[in-house]
């Protein structure tokens, strides 16, 4: 075991896999804990590292070592903090930090940022604006409230503890609401847990434009480090545009609101990103707050190219030297114009060939930084309904906003022109299969 101080990372996956190297470069080592939540589909989607991965000086797994035993082992080590390495690890990181009496990422109470109902209720109790909401376990529990409180307005129905837009359904009339609740309460989330209860919330007027305020906190001080304007088609994320430093002032209301959300939830340390919508007549309202590193292929290379820093690097700073970190003020506005484009297929079926035409087009884009196409010949292409069914992504970064926009539109034009349909054969297996994704620099 290392003699250096340790940061415990719970469920290092997605962008969190880069955290051990960043912390090691700052003269500390990392210890990995796998939570019981890192199971089901989410384990593969996030690529959560094994407890004994070589990037760590040691590891434990909650499925074979109970909480009390974990605490006993970790108390003997020089642990300086506990952080979540993905959404699956948020609750356990909060619990371990409290038991070890060290700084920890996440809210003041386990579950506050994992359970969308508890999260929204706490924010409302703090006096911050929220959209009307309630939980139900059957359609009958929702109908009177929908008619009397919302006046029959459109709603979003979603699981309480899911990720990546999975199960998020926009509903504009009662038959759709009834069907959504019935469907979701018969399903399990990506973590393998049944959706006994779902959240029903008034649909925001601007639901297809979300501002995501990405932060890193230490000793209760929050530092915005990236602002994203995310556009959606229904519940599907289709593009994330980094807000440039020249337009940052236009987003100050959303930033201030997001920092107040962190305070309301008791987040004092770690990475987070808060999804905010500017609702007419109300102002900023929270969609949700995630007490972890942002994922979605917003990796350190992309962020560093666009911003000059990354959330991973700043979190490593906050973990290893919180006193110095709180004296810094990283710019939240990008220095380059950048977009993360999620590929979107309107076609489902067996791929009879690789998406070679798409590959050629993407590689030729002047502002392409990197991309990933996650399906190939012999796989079943899914129609895109959420992030997990997107066939890949493209990172665009450049000094000229017009060129970045033109490259984005070139991708969408190719998709609309049938670039997926041309590669799909008739028939084939019913369940989509994903090849192991590889980043293409």
Q: What features would you describe in this structure?
A:
There is one protein chain. The protein has helices at 19-24, 40-46, 67-75, 90-100, 116-125, 140-148, 174-184, 252-265, 300-307, 311-320, 322-325, 356-363, 401-416, and strands spanning 6-10, 29-34, 58-61, 79-84, 133-136, 155-159, 169-171, 198-202, 209-218, 221-233, 236-242, 270-279, 283-290, 337-342, 349-350, 368-373, 380-381, 392-398. With 441 residues, it is an alpha+beta fold. It folds into four domains: 6-100, Rossmann fold (3-Layer(aba) Sandwich); 132-202, Dna Ligase, domain 1 (2-Layer Sandwich); 209-335, ATP-grasp fold, B domain (D-amino Acid Aminotransferase, Chain A, domain 1), CATH 3.30.470.20; 338-423, Aldehyde Oxidoreductase, domain 3 (Alpha-Beta Complex), CATH 3.90.1170. The strands form four sheets. The protein has an eight-stranded antiparallel sheet, with helices on both faces. Strands 3-2-1-4 form a four-stranded parallel sheet. Strands 5-8-6-7 form a four-stranded antiparallel sheet, sandwiched between helices. Strand 9 and strand 10 (221-233) form a beta hairpin.
In CATH, the topology of the largest domain is named: D-amino Acid Aminotransferase, Chain A, domain 1
Overall mean pLDDT stands at 92
- The total tally of domains equals 4
Strand content: 15-25%
Q: How big is the Rg? A: 21 Å
Low-confidence regions? 428-441
How far apart lie the N and C ends? Answer: 35 Å
Taking the sheet with the most strands, its summary is: 8 strands, antiparallel
Number of helices: 13
Estimated helix fraction: 25-40%
The CATH architecture of the largest domain is 2-Layer Sandwich
Given the C-alpha coordinates, what overall shape results?
A: globular
DSSP strand tally: 18
CATH superfamily of the largest domain: ATP-grasp fold, B domain
Widest sheet: strand ordering: 13-12-9-10-11-14-18-16
- As an assembly, this protein is single chain
Helix-strand makeup class: alpha+beta
* Name of the top-level CATH class of the largest domain: Alpha Beta
């Amino acid at each position: 075991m290392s003699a250096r101080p340790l940061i415990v990372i719970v469920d290092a996956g997605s962008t969190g896999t880069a955290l051990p190297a960043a912390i090691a470069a700052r003269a500390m080592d990392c210890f990995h804990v796998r939570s019981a939540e890192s199971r089901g589909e989410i384990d593969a989607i996030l690529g959560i590292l094994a407890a004994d991965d070589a990037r760590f000086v040691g590891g434990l797994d909650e499925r074979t070592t109970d909480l009390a035993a974990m605490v006993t082992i970790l108390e003997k080590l020089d642990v300086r903090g506990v952080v979540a390495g993905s959404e699956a690890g948020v609750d356990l990181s909060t619990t371990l930090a409290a038991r070890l009496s060290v700084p920890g990422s996440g809210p003041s109470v386990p579950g506050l940022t994992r359970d969308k109902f508890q999260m929204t209720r706490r924010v409302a109790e703090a006096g911050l604006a929220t959209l009307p909401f309630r939980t139900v376990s059957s359609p009958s529990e929702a109908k009177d409230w929908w008619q009397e409180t919302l006046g029959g307005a459109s709603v979003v129905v979603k699981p309480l503890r899911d990720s990546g837009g999975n199960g998020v359904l926009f509903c504009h009339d009662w038959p759709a609401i009834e069907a959504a609740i019935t469907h979701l309460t018969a399903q399990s989330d990506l973590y393998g847990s049944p959706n006994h209860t779902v959240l029903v919330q008034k649909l925001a007027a601007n639901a297809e434009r979300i501002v995501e305020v990405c932060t890193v906190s230490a000793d209760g001080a929050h530092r915005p480090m990236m602002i994203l304007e995310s556009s959606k088609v229904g519940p599907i994320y289709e593009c994330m545009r980094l807000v440039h430093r020249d337009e940052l002032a236009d987003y100050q209301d959303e930033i201030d609101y997001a920092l107040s959300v962190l305070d309301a939830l008791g987040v004092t340390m770690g990475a987070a990103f808060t999804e905010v919508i500017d609702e007419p007549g109300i102002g900023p309202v929270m969609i949700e707050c995630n007490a972890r590193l942002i994922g979605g292929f917003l990796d350190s290379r992309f962020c560093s190219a666009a911003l000059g820093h990354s959330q991973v690097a700043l979190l490593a700073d906050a973990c290893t030297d919180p006193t110095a970190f709180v004296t810094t003020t990283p710019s939240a506005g990008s220095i380059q114009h950048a977009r993360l484009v999620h590929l979107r297929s309107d076609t489902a079926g067996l791929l009879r060939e690789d998406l070679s035409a798409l590959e050629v087009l993407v590689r030729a884009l002047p502002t392409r930084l990197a991309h990933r196409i996650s399906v190939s010949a012999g796989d079943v292409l899914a129609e895109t309904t959420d992030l997990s069914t997107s066939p890949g992504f493209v990172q665009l970064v450049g000094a000229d906003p017009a060129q970045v926009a033109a490259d984005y539109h070139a991708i969408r034009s190719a998709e609309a022109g049938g670039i997926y349909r041309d590669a799909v054969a008739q028939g084939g297996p019913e369940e989509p299969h994903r090849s192991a994704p590889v980043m293409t620099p």
